[in-house]
Write a structure and sequence with these properties.
Layout (H helix, E strand, L loop, with lengths): L51 H10 L3 H15 L8 E4 L4 H12 L5 E5 L7 H13 L3 E4 L4 H15 L4 H17 L4 E4 L15 E2 L15 E2 L2 E2 H6 L5 H4 L15 E4 H4 L4 H12 L23 H12 L3 H11 L5 H11 L8 H8 L3 H8 L8 E4 L2 E4 L11
Parallel strand pairs: 1-2, 2-3, 4-8
Antiparallel strand pairs: 5-8, 6-7, 9-10
Helix pairs in contact: 3-10, 12-13
């Protein structure tokens, strides 16, 4: 019998033989018209059990990064010193990737980056210290977002209860804020860090114009959703103000500049997360978490927001993919783990409940814990989960110990 699926996921669960990620992984969770009926593209895995993300990792091994660096130098020369005080923008919050990107652009390539930060919803103490170290160590100037607190909390609460997506507004802001600041300060060059093609995303792996179709624009106002609710309904029925919502929305037509380009530094420079971590520690005062991140075995990835851990737990609920799986898949692609090691780490840590900050998050967002746990089970797709003796179990796992394996 064919089981019902949610979120437009493939009914048949397939795991990549090389990276252990499954075809339930969405290619992008950043959609303005993101609601429960939205169908998403997911990671492609071919008939031989090999994922697009693994294939791209093999392509990377053959890339001539000396030639790529020449392209980077041409791009930088086109912009260096030609836009006033700053000649490029680096978005980030002081994590390892933004530390690496800004430091190498400034110190190796002679650029003067303006850093921009879409601030975390709830900073961790060590995340905020990393943010300060980042700016202080390299004498960087920074523009940080200050959202209306009530609106941010309200939209985050809606995103959790309607979509089980704690990071929707944050992830949107990561992309939007940088390009809005580029337009505002007339700095047409924006550098993100890791190349999105790393994860098998079906987009160009280098430049994206701000007018590219991947940038959903303000002219689509009637189709925009936040927290699973149309913008117009948020204004008319939830009493939110358009002026407070604008910071979460994509650029309007009069904000757009044809010459703004968004590039991925990981296209031009060999980008290995573990190596960017070491670089950030040595050059930018970056420090990992003082303890293991719940849901995985690592200490240095995505550690600046208390809600981050909850976000990865919800991906486990919706897609059967926890934080350990994401980390293992990345390290397998980079040759830092064996398949057997990866399987053991996934079995041990995937789906671990992130209780360290949970009570604080629920109190901040004014969500009753009982309401959260009632809501979360509504997002378990029947083709991924089965209830056995009042406990939810995965139907299929990479370790082949699911109830249907």
């Amino acid at each position: 019998m064919k089981l019902k699926t949610y979120f437009g996921l493939p009914n048949k669960i397939i795991f990549c033989k090389k990276s252990l990620i499954s075809n339930q992984r969405p290619n992008s969770s950043i959609e303005f018209n993101h609601n429960k009926k939205t169908k998403k593209n997911t990671l492609a895995i071919d008939k031989n059990g090999i994922s697009d993300s693994w294939k791209y990792s093999r392509i990377k091994l053959k890339i001539d990064y000396n030639e790529r660096e020449k392209k980077l130098l041409q791009l930088l020369e086109k912009h260096r010193g030609k836009h006033g005080e700053f000649d490029c923008i680096v978005p980030g919050s002081g994590g390892k990737d933004s530390c690496f990107a800004s430091h190498i652009l400034k110190n190796k390539y002679g650029m003067n980056p303006l850093t921009v930060t879409w601030s975390p919803i709830l900073y961790t103490d060590y995340g905020y210290q990393n943010f300060k170290n980042w700016l202080l160590t390299d004498n960087l100037q920074n523009i940080s977002s200050k959202r209306d607190e009530y609106t941010m909390k309200y939209l985050t609460k809606l995103a959790i209860m309607n979509l089980m997506h704690p990071f929707q507004t944050f992830m949107l802001g990561q992309k939007i804020f940088a390009t809005k600041m580029a337009a505002k300060y007339k700095i047409p060059l924006v550098f993100f860090g890791e190349n999105e093609a790393e994860h098998g995303n079906p987009i160009a792996d280098n430049k994206r114009s701000i007018r590219d179709k991947s940038y959903f624009t303000y002219k689509n106002f009637d189709k925009l959703y936040l927290g699973g609710i149309k913008i117009k309904e948020l204004i008319n029925e939830h009493n939110l103000k358009i002026n407070d919502l604008k910071i979460f929305l994509p650029p309007s037509e009069n904000e757009l500049e044809d010459n703004i380009e968004v590039h991925y530094l990981g296209y031009y420079i060999k980008w290995i997360p573990q190596e960017t971590f070491y670089y950030a520690v040595e050059n930018c005062g970056f420090r990992p978490r003082p303890f293991r991140t719940q849901g995985t075995y690592s200490k240095y990835n995505s550690i600046d927001d208390k809600i981050d851990d909850l976000h990865y737990y919800t991906t486990f609920i919706k897609f059967g993919i926890g934080r350990a799986t994401y980390d293992v898949s990345q390290e397998l692609r980079n040759g830092h783990l064996s398949i057997e090691e990866g399987k053991k780490l996934i079995k041990k840590y995937d789906g671990e409940f992130p209780d360290r900050y949970f009570n604080e998050i629920m109190k901040y967002l004014e969500i009753k814990k009982s309401d959260f746990f009632k809501a979360i089970d509504k997002f378990r797709s029947p083709h991924i989960w089965k209830k056995v003796k009042k406990k939810w179990k995965l139907r299929r796992t990479v370790n082949k110990d699911g109830v249907d394996d």
